[in-house]
Amino acid sequence: MHIGFLGLGNMGGPMARNLLKAGHQLSVFDLSPAALASLVEAGAQQAASPAAVAQAGVEVIISMLPAAAHVRQVYLGEDGLLSRVPANVLLIDCSTIDPMTAREVAAAAASKGNPMLDAPVSGGTGGAAAGTLTFMVGGKEADFRQAEPILAAMGKNIVHCGDSGNGQVAKVANNLLLGISMIGAAEAMSLGVALGMDAKVLAGVINSSSGRCWSSEIYNPFPEVVENSPASRGYSGGFGADLMLKDLGLASEAAKQTRQPIILGAVAQQLYQAFSLQGNGALDFSAIIKLYRQEH
Amino acid sequence: MHIGFLGLGNMGGPMARNLLKAGHQLSVFDLSPAALASLVEAGAQQAASPAAVAQAGVEVIISMLPAAAHVRQVYLGEDGLLSRVPANVLLIDCSTIDPMTAREVAAAAASKGNPMLDAPVSGGTGGAAAGTLTFMVGGKEADFRQAEPILAAMGKNIVHCGDSGNGQVAKVANNLLLGISMIGAAEAMSLGVALGMDAKVLAGVINSSSGRCWSSEIYNPFPEVVENSPASRGYSGGFGADLMLKDLGLASEAAKQTRQPIILGAVAQQLYQAFSLQGNGALDFSAIIKLYRQEH
Amino acid sequence: MHIGFLGLGNMGGPMARNLLKAGHQLSVFDLSPAALASLVEAGAQQAASPAAVAQAGVEVIISMLPAAAHVRQVYLGEDGLLSRVPANVLLIDCSTIDPMTAREVAAAAASKGNPMLDAPVSGGTGGAAAGTLTFMVGGKEADFRQAEPILAAMGKNIVHCGDSGNGQVAKVANNLLLGISMIGAAEAMSLGVALGMDAKVLAGVINSSSGRCWSSEIYNPFPEVVENSPASRGYSGGFGADLMLKDLGLASEAAKQTRQPIILGAVAQQLYQAFSLQGNGALDFSAIIKLYRQEH
Amino acid sequence: MHIGFLGLGNMGGPMARNLLKAGHQLSVFDLSPAALASLVEAGAQQAASPAAVAQAGVEVIISMLPAAAHVRQVYLGEDGLLSRVPANVLLIDCSTIDPMTAREVAAAAASKGNPMLDAPVSGGTGGAAAGTLTFMVGGKEADFRQAEPILAAMGKNIVHCGDSGNGQVAKVANNLLLGISMIGAAEAMSLGVALGMDAKVLAGVINSSSGRCWSSEIYNPFPEVVENSPASRGYSGGFGADLMLKDLGLASEAAKQTRQPIILGAVAQQLYQAFSLQGNGALDFSAIIKLYRQEH
């Protein structure tokens, strides 16, 4: 299949590579010449602009952009995708943005005759490279069925979350809970150890009891509890604290727009903000446990 | 085996019954004549005081009391257990109290020649009746080995958490994380639904992703997501909000004593306190989601 | 002086009247025919659009609009003020909006040759009617000097806060602290009374000590402590909880944009959001004390 | 007058000196030989124990101790004050402790025929030396009248707060609000400056508006805003962060006992706990603003 791909950064680059590996033909664009060159070397065709991608004869266009402002510009801007793309080309935006913008852009696409899906991912750069991402997809059932085999070349868990925007809703809600439970795990582990308990034994009890969560079991923030976790290698790699901060910012923005309180979520956002201010934004988000432990 | 049992309330009563069913001989005491009479009818021998239990020729004494003050009084008080119990009788306190008091009482017992375990439980009155409690046990390995078959008559998950007090540490840490993740689940579910997503679909996505926790998966606070959960039957039964408030109070007390911060935990405690003030303390603790949803 | 006035709502209406009383000639616009008619009856000239106000031969234009989106549209929109207003006409925006938008609009005005000030107010509808508002003004010193006598017809405290946008900065920072200290006063008063102290005596001690703040002294949230306060008349009138919620939302938005944490501020925002969800948004913002007291 | 004085530390030492200066005769006790020697050199008579002070023929006994445990031991312990002091000797405890303990000790004193006042102070070591402390006094009106001239030798603001324990209630409520409003001032100042405003100008606007509080006006946490404030001398001197942490701990303990929520207060306590964990407990409590600002 001939696919357009916009945004070839840390996530988009490896995702596009996996599409090439699966045998698809790709027309790609990115503002960075280096990112473009790297994909061209891997077999993609270079396009000069988003509009050029739209007119390259593609059947599907996938975008992976940093934030809502970029999505607006690429799709709705003057000379943007929607002003040039032929009707019926399927649009799939994998960026993580607020549900309202996702719905607004999808509605604009629909009015031009283009089906559109929001399909944010989880799994990080590791999952992008390995082709094991989770896609949370919002949009019409039929469009989801069309997209599924394409997304399957980049991920192993493709979930239909309902109508337009719901992929973003699922991601923002999941990461809100993730941000809270990670800090909760950090507080519980730090307190238990301060009270004299062995960290591994404590994690074992919690993980077989009602405190169990992904953050305590798979990604425990205490060093040496889970082998190969970021906590066991100095909090390098993984999902950066500043990315969690961005997602908690999306959650609080969505909460404000729907007049919905998120009390622990707001505190979690601010703790990540304070942590980032202290220069820790590039560490894995489980490093937030440093707020709770004296440096040794 | 001849066992002494002190405290025959909502938890202690059914626990003692399960010991009788397992064929043990019981000498029991409680301040409530009704509670005593009920156990006597089931086959236990009545004792007139904790001291009388201590002198009834028992090999093991189990206590299940409401709070640290009661534990102090029963064990350390004038004419208390420790003043009367023969050396080598194994003492097992199943009350949920702060780790410091647990360690202090165990040290006093040791100085009189009595091994002692702290063994708080989780699983609620349902688990007590069904004999499926989890016991988190602190104390010496050999004493734990001796207690294990006795506790197995009352529970199905008996975990050794390390030295004296660590059963309490494990419980306080687990329930701290549980209180936080339950409120996190309430915020995430409420926000997702306010943003237009179906509650069951959202829970499904979260439970196959990184937001997954016991509170989202087994005990989801949103109505009609998990069959037979308290949320699906009007928040009756289950683990009362006021009990969660008590456990978060133990966590913040332990945090203060160890000079350890617990930021989300402190907010969680206060939200449960505010919820209780509004008259909701007897509801299941997942009802905290009511703070986040307009009444319908 | 001939002045244009845009936005004749609960605040703008009485402000415009005070300009008429001071002898100024007014050309006014509002989307509401009733609001327009009421000002015309008081002596103002009706204009058909913001553009018409811009071209009515005015020396100064004042706007008082609900939110940043309206300010953008009125000033920057197609056929908006900036596309029609003659150079050198002084623009004064009294709306409460985020500092970034204020600076962006002022920069656009400057590029068309129009000096512009941001001049948000405090003092509420009472202050607007009585002409006793406080104006916090951002912009050039010379422009501030020109505006001062005009603003003096509507307020009694006109403060120059520095360059463009700083009027909004001052308001958002002040109201952030106000929102926090009001909840702090609510917690301190509720706790002190729950511990057995008389509310008036407690307020007296606090107000002569280091806990003293505007919220404890002038606007105490406990009933019957300050005569004629909203708390002493059922929390009617005053500064609505939903307006405080809006201002705390501006603070958290500004904090996010500058990557600055505001931990207590974020909790305060969410408590007002939860309070609003319970149907209390129209009450005075000091009614937040209801979260801390059982209804009697 | 012949007065007994127990506890000659950083606060009690200078307070006792001021009583000597006012012409009173003093019998003093402290566990530290150095502290005792220093007072003896200043003219006091040394006693060998609290009981010895009680029997030295004094008319009044004043105590200034670190925490509730010490107050219990000195007054209620074996061979404690109450077991030896003659009836009618007036007891004045200036320690900052929880209201419940204060009331319990006062009730025990009353049953032995001794009037007792709780009289915690504010004003710090500077106020203790200068004799300008504020005393918040709980107890009977007649006893307050008797104590007033004595306390006037050590302070300039002597406030009767009502019945027994209410001095402690007033202090705990005041310092709860102080802790919250200091962090609020830190957040508002940091945000305003991050948004581009001059710190002094911002403080000026806030202090003439509704955000005004003691923490913004007298004790602003931003450097160089208030001359001679701790913030303007590197946060040395003043009221230590660990003392504020202790007082917020008393507030949360009192809140728990009365089942009263204190949401911002709990967050404030934990922020001070985290700040202390980072090694900052000896700095003035206004240094909490460091959590909000990058080190320069």
Main traits of this protein?
2 domains, Rossmann fold, alpha/beta, three-stranded mixed sheet, homotetramer, N-(1-d-carboxylethyl)-l-norvaline Dehydrogenase, domain 2, 296 residues, six-stranded parallel sheet
Characterise the protein shown here.
Chains A, B, C, D: It catalyses: 3-hydroxy-2-methylpropanoate + NAD(+) = 2-methyl-3-oxopropanoate + NADH + H(+). Chains A, B, C, D: Keywords: Branched-chain amino acid catabolism, NAD, Oxidoreductase. Chains A, B, C, D: Residues 3-162 form the 6-phosphogluconate dehydrogenase NADP-binding domain. Four copies of one chain form a homotetramer. Chain A has 296 residues and is an alpha/beta fold. Chain A has two domains: 2-164, NAD(P)-binding Rossmann-like Domain (Rossmann fold), CATH 3.40.50.720; 169-292, Orthogonal Bundle (N-(1-d-carboxylethyl)-l-norvaline Dehydrogenase, domain 2), CATH 1.10.1040. Helix content of chain A is 49%, strand content 12%. The first copy, chain A, has a six-stranded parallel sheet, sandwiched between helices. The first copy, chain A, has a three-stranded mixed sheet with strand order 7-8-9. In chain A, helix 8 links the parallel strand 8 and strand 9. Chain A is elongated. The relative contact order of chain A is 0.09. The interface between B and D is medium-sized, with 18 and 18 residues.
